[in-house]
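Minutes, project check-in
Item: structure for the 267-residue chain
Input as provided by the requester:
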Amino acid sequence: MVLGGGGLTGLAWLQGVLAELPDVAGTADRVVGTSAGALAATLMLTGADADDPAPLLAELAGVRVGVAAAAALLAAQVWPSRRHALQWLGRRAARDAHRAGRRGRLSEEAFVDLIGRAIGDTHWPASLIVVAVDAVSGRPAYFTTRSGVELTTAIAASCAMPGVFPAVHLEGRAYLDGGLRSPANADLASECDPVLILAPQSRSLRELRRPAHQAARLRAHGASVVLVQNERPALDVLSAARLDAAREQGRRQGGQARDELAALSWA
């Protein structure tokens, strides 16, 4: 099972989709969570009420993706070397961390605390893989129950959109949003069958990072795949005003995917 990223509206969309689908997470051998998907996966696997964090996460609704941050993210998309682009974003994040206090922006400690209050007191689900990006090396990082890191911190790292939220440190290294690698990281479901992919965001300038391309590769290797992509992703992924609409859109698409999912065998 793969749950991709997409900010607050992505989380709301995932909540809507999951509300209409049978509970398959408990039987999944691997649950890949990226950014908002990591948060949604944790709530689902731990049995938490998925609606509980909504008021808490609304605290982030005042955060905006500024012009400078949007331009940097776009530049990273078109950079010939993805690893070097992510290293560049990491250097920008380190610079921004020194200025956060003066600008009144959310600190790393406050950000991790916010994520912790959203998920509550939980332990690592055995099947969960949380995807982030190493801000120093520019390479992906995968956290599991065997990684020896706090679940809350790993999820915060996976959600650390550069220029918007602070980089998160684990064992002395800074990490950024796992969606910088891929919107959903569905390729991490290799050798799994069947596979359910929920992608709140599917846009990427590079085809190989798109959920649809990754789903096609999984099918080419013999897996049965159900891919549900948000048909109307919000441009402002942190907009509190768009949460209800995103959740309703998720419900519609979840209902449409129910029969397709029921045709698969989940052992």
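Outcome recorded: Strands lie at 2-3, 31-34, 128-134, 140-143, 168-170, 173-177, 195-199, 225-229.
No further action items on this chain.
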